[in-house]
Amino acid sequence: MRVALLLPPSTQLNTPYPATAYLARALRAAGHGVHQDDLGLKLALRVFSAAGLRAVFDAVEAAAD
Questions:
Q1: Which of 11, 14, 55, 62 is the 20 to 30 A CA-CA neighbour of 45?
Q2: DSSP single-letter state for residue 19
Q3: Nearest-5° angle of CA 59, CA 63, CA 65?
Q4: This prediction's pTM
Q5: CB atoms within 10 A of CB 40
């Protein structure tokens, strides 16, 4: 069996929820394929990238006009 474990973007970035890591370890030990993904971290990296910040500032400037 292949399993995807996703951490939703509503969690805090500085304190990741450990349940998916524990579950992934148990599933791997049982012989299952596991993929983990932290959507909160992906969102933060995308927003705080150069392109993301440019888009935010452009949207703010456009709303001010």
A1: 62
A2: H
A3: 120
A4: 0.67
A5: 18
